Each structure stands twice: as C-alpha cells, then as structure tokens.
Amino acid sequence: MPPRLQLLPFQWQRPMATTTTNLLSAFLLPQAAIPIHQQSRNAHILASLSDTQGAYNKRIRRGRGPASGKGKTSGRGHKGQKQHGKVPAGFNGGQTPEIVVHGERGFNNVHSIDLAPVNLDRIQSWIDQGRIDPTRPITVRELAQSRCIHQTKEGVKLLGRGVEKDDHEVPVDSVLKQPIHIVVSRASAPAIAAVEAAGGSVTTRFYTKSAIARIMKREMHPFVSLAWTKESGSEALAVAEDGEPLTESKVMKEMGYSYRLPDPTKRRDIEYYRDPAHRGYLSHLLKPMEGPSLFFRSPVERKSAAGVKKEKVLPENRLW
C-alpha cells in the first residue's frame, strides 16, 4: 500500500496586520493564512476515475444476501442433484440413457457447404420477364442482381424443378424455351440433362465466400481463371468475340479486374470439379482413361495398366 500522510494539527499563521479587515479575511478565508511554501491538492478527481466503457463487466456475486438477487441458494434452487453437483448432458436419473434406447438422431456434416438453390422454372420465369438475358452467360452475379436468388451464401446449386420425367425418372421435356449457358457451384443430374437438351451448357465452378463478394463488386471475373482454357468443354464461355481464347491475363487487363479467381485446393473439391459427369471446369485436365479421383484409379485405367494376362508355362520335367 502507498505510504499514508501524517496528519498534523493545523497551525494558523499570525496575520501580519492587526486590523479588523485582515482578521475577518483570515477567518473567512483560511487558505489565505497558509504559508506560501505549502501546496494544496484537490482529491475530488479520484472519485470520478473509471474504466473505459465496456472494459469491465461486473461479475455476479453469489451468496451475498437476499438483496443481491443471488443469495441463499445462489440461483441453484432447492435440493436435488442439480444443486448439489453437476449433471452430465443427457443424464436420465440413472436409468438407460435416451441415446441408448432410441439411438442417435441426425449428425453434423463438417464437409457440407451452404448453397443457394435455384430451379430451372424460376430461371425461365425471370427470362420471360426480361430480368435475365439468356444470350449472355448466367453467373452468380446475374442471379443475385436480378433477385433470382436472395442470398449468394457459399455458391449456387442448379436444380431441375419443372422438368417432365418418364416412368424411369429420365428427363423427357425441358422447361427451358431457349438455350442458356450457366455457371454455378453445383448442379443436379436432371438439371444438367434439361439444359443440354435445350441446346445450352452447364459448367460447375469453384467459389469461396470472399470470391463471391468480390465478384458482386466487379473486382473479380465470375468464371475466367488460370485453369480455365478453351479445352474445358465450354467453348461458348471460354472464347472471346474475336475468336481468341480468353486467358486470365487478357481478361484482367481489358476489364480492369484487381483479383484473381481462386481454384480449389482441397482434394474433395478438386475431384468434384475434375468429374465430367458434374460438368466440372477442371475436367479437361483428365488424361485418356483417367478418372477424376486423385487417389483411386478407375476400372478402365486399372485394366489398361494391367495389360494382357500371360499364361504361366510349366517345364516338362516338373513333378507337381
């Protein structure tokens, strides 16, 4: 603790003059009677000092009387196991737990991504209203700006609602009245078949949250990247008006984009966008008879690598 000041008895200074005016001033203003070499300090500012707003949260003091609101039982209630000790989650009084009797329900898939769904019938309705131009590529920017989707989330998934199917669940008639070229994060098989039946194309593209935000600000191209080439299977999207292929450097220079569109780095994402069945934009990287997996080889690739099996010829003098 800081040293305490010693309280000395206050000594009055004898006034220099003995007139009545000096006596009254010394009586009414005692500070004037203090010698000049002594200093006075006001301590009232110490009571007004406080922490910055939000720097200190007052903790709950339990068991400090009924006036505090948390006295006596300290907010635990009366009796029972919850007052005397801790109860584990799912505890059922000692009998068989519910998770054992009825089993687990539901799970949290850490690999799932939150995508904004969009159906073909909704896209066709937006085209009929003139809110989407079908002659230009339809990307997440066009879908969001036309309010066809209200939240971009982590990407867009194309679904095939409105497509007529036969008894074997095969699309036979498309809801689309004209061909469209659309770039989304994921697409269902009926939606891909319906778009291609109308003469259009579907390309699945990898996106991130930050990439979508920059695409909406027109700081990044919605589909042209380092891995996007003419051989990607979407020539309508990867070829410019002058017939030359759209390269990343050319697009960024002419359109004034500041950021490059990212490519996937996780194995799960790379394998999805390498799969031609998903119309992935990396499917052009596959070699002949090569599967989309980065670890497992396809049956055709394994069969071709094994070659023709040779028959084993045994010598003539072998006894067994």
From TrEMBL:
Keyword line: Ribonucleoprotein, Ribosomal protein
GO CC terms, sorted: mitochondrial large ribosomal subunit
Region described as Disordered: spans on this chain: 56-93
Family assignment from sequence similarity: Belongs to the universal ribosomal protein uL15 family.
Protein name stated in the entry: Large ribosomal subunit protein uL15/eL18 domain-containing protein
HAMAP family assigned: Ribosomal_uL15 (MF_01341)
UniProt feature, compositional bias: Basic residues: 73-85
Gene Ontology molecular functions: structural constituent of ribosome
Domain (Large ribosomal subunit protein uL15/eL18) ranges: 117-203
